[in-house]
Design brief:
This protein is α+β, with helices and mostly antiparallel strands. The protein has one domain. The protein contains two helices and four strands; from the N terminus they run ααββββ. The longest helix is centred in the N-terminal third of the chain and has 19 residues. The protein is elongated and about 85 Å long.
């Protein structure tokens, strides 16, 4: 009986220690991670000529859903053309997974 109690106590204490060590990200850290993930997605896409086009994420507004972040980004685009430089600012929407690895553009 004492062995069972000792085992249960050890499991409970180990679980408390394990789950108390998980650091919750602050809102600012989440914003920076979302901006970085979107910049990587935009600038390293398979059809992007990085010698001509450069995206820069300026702002992000997001909502934390159960499995993803639903985001609206303000993005600055610079494009080199033969005769001139084009630069514009626009908005994009995306869903980004909680681990910041899977990104799906919504518009």
């Amino acid at each position: 009986m004492i062995k069972i109690i000792r085992f249960v106590f050890t499991v409970i204490v180990s679980g408390i220690i394990f789950f108390s060590c998980v650091k919750k990200m602050s809102r600012k850290e989440v914003e920076e991670s979302l901006k970085t993930a979107m910049e990587l997605y935009l600038n390293h896409g398979p059809r992007i000529d990085t010698s001509r086009i450069k995206f820069n994420v300026l702002e992000v507004a997001f909502f934390e859903d159960t499995a993803v972040y639903i985001c609206d980004f303000k993005v600055h685009l610079k494009e080199k053309r033969i005769d001139r430089m084009i630069d514009t600012t626009g908005s994009m929407s995306a869903r980004i997974s909680k681990d910041f690895k899977n990104i799906t553009r919504t518009n």
